[in-house]
């Protein structure tokens, strides 16, 4: 799992349609809220008929789209986050993967919850169709507030397989009302803010429980100040023999 093994000729066309069983890059967002008696996180429930994780409560997120790399960010990811995202890339990683992951995280948050992470500004050209509502609010996507906190690869044999990156976000960084889900699509139901100490009582995928435990420690360490990014990022690699690593750790 090293990027050094890849060459420009080996990289795929990011606009190519992936196979149904292909390992797809994905991004999820944990939006944290600390304006009540305890920290809360935004979650929603997938449909009972969904091919991937039916009926499970999850964070907003989904696969990186072919066009995500072409969306210009008003502000990029913090350097440390971008550097860790660039670690241990798969040999078939698309060349624009790091910014595309940030764009995917913001797009999925917008589509599934109607919440906007961006800053005021005019788009450079005509916004893509799936960004027109976002642009209509006078916003451009900004990744400056995202914090990369977790990575996990789905084990083989699943109906959908993802190389998922999880980002943490403070609700105060949003450019929209955190209680207004009226612009959300219908992919997630029961969107609500749930206490970090209560979330594990929901019907969760195993990896979601692990991510919640990691983030709960970061929130506790942050206190009432800015959310602390992790010193290293946990990486559960289930692409073959299960392996655990820490991205950003000294070599």
From TrEMBL:
Q: Which residues form the Nudix hydrolase domain?
A: 22-216
Q: Where is this region: Disordered?
A: 1-21
**By what name is this protein known?**
8-oxo-dGTP pyrophosphatase MutT, NUDIX family
Record field: transmembrane: none
Could you confirm whether the keyword Nucleotidyltransferase appears in this record? no
- Which GO molecular function terms does the record list? hydrolase activity, acting on acid anhydrides, in phosphorus-containing anhydrides; metal ion binding
> Metal-binding: is it a keyword of this entry?
yes
Cofactor(s) of this protein: Mg(2+); Mn(2+)
Q: What keywords sit in the KW lines?
A: Hydrolase, Magnesium, Manganese, Metal-binding
């Amino acid at each position: 799992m090293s990027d050094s093994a890849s060459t420009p000729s080996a990289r795929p066309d990011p606009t190519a349609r992936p196979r149904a069983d292909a390992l797809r890059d994905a991004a999820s967002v944990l939006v944290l809220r600390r304006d009540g008696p305890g920290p809360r996180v935004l979650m929603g429930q997938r449909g009972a008929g969904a091919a991937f994780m039916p009926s499970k409560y999850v964070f907003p997120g989904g696969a990186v789209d072919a066009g995500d790399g072409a969306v210009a960010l008003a502000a990029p990811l913090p350097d440390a986050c971008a550097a860790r995202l660039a670690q241990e890339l798969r040999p078939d990683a698309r060349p624009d993967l790091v910014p595309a992951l940030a764009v995917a995280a913001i797009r999925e948050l917008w589509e599934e919850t109607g919440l906007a992470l961006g800053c005021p500004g005019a788009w450079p050209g005509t916004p893509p169709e799936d960004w027109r509502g976002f642009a209509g609010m006078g916003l451009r996507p900004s990744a400056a507030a995202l914090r990369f906190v977790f990575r996990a690869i789905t084990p083989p044999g699943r109906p959908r397989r993802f190389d998922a990156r999880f980002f943490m976000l403070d609700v105060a960084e949003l450019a929209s009302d955190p209680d207004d889900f009226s612009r959300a699509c219908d992919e997630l139901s029961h969107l609500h803010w749930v206490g970090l100490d209560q979330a594990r009582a929901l019907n969760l995928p195993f990896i979601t429980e692990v991510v919640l435990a990691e983030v709960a420690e970061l929130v506790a360490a942050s206190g009432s100040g800015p959310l602390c990014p992790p010193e290293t990022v946990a990486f559960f690699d289930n692409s073959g023999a299960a392996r655990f690593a820490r991205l950003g750790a000294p070599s």
